[in-house]
Amino acid sequence: MIYEDTKIKEKGNYLILKNIHKKYGNFVALNCLNLTLKNGEILVIIGPSGAGKTTILKIIAGLEEITSGEVILKNQIINDLDPNVRKFAMVFETYALYPHISVYDNLASSLSALKMDKEIIKEKVESISKLLQIFPLLDRRPNHLSGGQRQRVALGRALIKPADLYLLDEPIAHLDAKLRHQMIGEFAHLQESQKLSMIYVTHDWQEAITLGDHIIVLKDGEIVQYGTKEEIFDRPADSFVGKIIGDPPMNLIPGNIITNSDGSFFKIDNIDNGKIKLNDTLIDTLSSEKVSIGIRPHKIDLTTSIGDGIQAEIYSVERDGIDFLISIRVADGIYKTRFNERKSFKIGEKVWVKFNLKGACLFDRKNKLIKVLEGKNGK
Amino acid sequence: MENKLVLSHVYKNYGKVEAVKDVSFEVKDKEFVSIVGPSGCGKSSTLRMIAGLEEISEGDILLDDNKRINNIPARDRNIALCFENYALYPHLTVANNFAFPLQVRGFKKKEIDRKIESTISLLGLEKYKNMYPKELGGGELQRVALGRALIREASIYLLDEALSHLDTQTKIELRSRLLRIHKLNKLTFILVTHDQSEAVAVSDRIIVMNEGTIQQIGKPEELYNDPSNLFVADFIGEPPMNLIKGILIYSKIKQFIHRCKDVDFYLPQKAEDKLSKYKDQKVTMGIRPQYINLCDNSQPNAIEGIVYSYEYLGEKGYMLLDCKGEKILVELDHTDYYKTNEKVYFRFQEKHIHLFEPKTGKRIL
Lengths: 379, 365
Description:
Chain A has helices at residues 6-10, 53-61, 103-113, 118-131, 147-159, 177-194, 205-211, 229-234, 239-244; strands at residues 13-24, 27-38, 42-46, 68-73, 76-77, 88-91, 165-169, 198-202, 214-219, 222-227, 251-260, 263-268, 275-278, 290-295, 300-303, 310-320, 323-330, 333-339, 350-355, 361-363, 369-372.
């Protein structure tokens, strides 16, 4: 069936999911989901477990029936298309490899099925296995490999074959930190140079904002935000997005807005001297509203000399590689700050806190973003 | 500071396999020391010998006032243990799991109650006090297991991969808690872990082990900036140090150069004395991504690279550069956008350049 909605067609969308609902009995797994993917683009879906990430991939792959809605690829509705005739390549978290044949044959099998020339297959197997650092393992069988090695073989088997769409479910989740970092670099290069159309599911924010041209943040079967990496990091739609991106995540400080003749202030809950001047012109209706400020760890500065800032207590001091992470307690909240030099703070010590509000996020009582403070494009 | 624990030339043999070879170190009173290394490096065997769960093949272990404990059975050593598999009593509540080891040791009920209260508040377990292990999640179970070790007044507390299997958020939360308990209660901790970033996060000093031997003992920043060999350089730090293989050449302009695939990396001039005897030999250069800076091509010793991939992380970024086939990772403290195949120039911070002998791993600069 040809898809007729010219408005969506004109944008050059390659894959469209339109009003997708998925129910398991009474449980709503996906609630009116809409997404689009352009040709040659990588879309990353991030969310906690149970958000419905894998269900989306399975629906696109045709492995899961849709309760209602449409999946459209290259202007064709493919809801009822047999999964076997969809030219998709997939990697799921459980890596279904053929146990009785070598890694080489596992990688080559899909190309042999296409009756590709043996020499070309050999070339392709070697190049993908070098990229994924499994070249020395080509003669081994999957059951003689570690989990991380098997995962890379499964990834190689998906990437080696020409496909309309690549669907990847946590493809590097089981690798150790160092290898994962290298794989992210290789993967980003491969995708950008070959312009593969991909949907990539992960729970890891670093993978998400490194790889995604666009990112979808998913929660309880609904899209919380769709945006570029910069939008997701700098303008999170709500505090959930702020918390899921970043390590350590965004600090959320509860309080309310006070406006008097001196201007507007953010008053932190449960402390006496907890007022921070706001330089933004705020809508009057925000006054005395319950809000929270989301601030990234490197935007909080600490000093031991008595200042006009807010008083806090050092809660813990630890290292993050060559940086330092210092947790502070303000009222009943614990917030993390990051420094790239050693500060000689002791646990329990009193310090004064300076919040650099440029770029901080103001959230309303329902945790939705009101505006980015002191930003150029504040709403 | 006085020594709490001393290991002196300790060996552990399983048949012909030497799992631990000539390990010596001391842990000071109130110190937080981690033993870190890949699986099979001997770190757990070392811990088990300290705990008394494993016989010592050779050497001595001294506790408190240099008292030799080799032949003292585990239960009589004043050492508390916390393992990665929680080993809790399933039929007892959290509070009773805490009480049991104290009852066995003959503590009075009043004393036990007081200790339980303080341990529960220390670990933030108030809500879970009367729950059973099967009703708890991984993070809470690990806290209960920690609590059962901490409730004892021991000379030293041994933690075996005690944080390894928790999700990131829980791990970070529990890590801060553990650090507070260590500092505020003035306890002596030894943590065994395979995760170098965890060891770096919490430790006063770190012992790096590989293949049964100690590779280096030092403060986290010493391991970062002053690794004693190639193993430590590669093991500590995430993302890892760039390790670039090449040949050491003395150039016509009388300067040492590390040459790798036709790319010349100039080495600090004052290092000549250390380098001269390695002239024309194969060496491996090491530099951390943090110590490489982008620059323009007019700068002395600027090296050309092609952007292979770019990793945006919000507050900072990483860029993988291709230098005639050699890949070099650079950390950026800003997030300007770089395109694949764009040409850039960079230089190394001289004092952070290391050279290693590739065969032995020995550091020469």
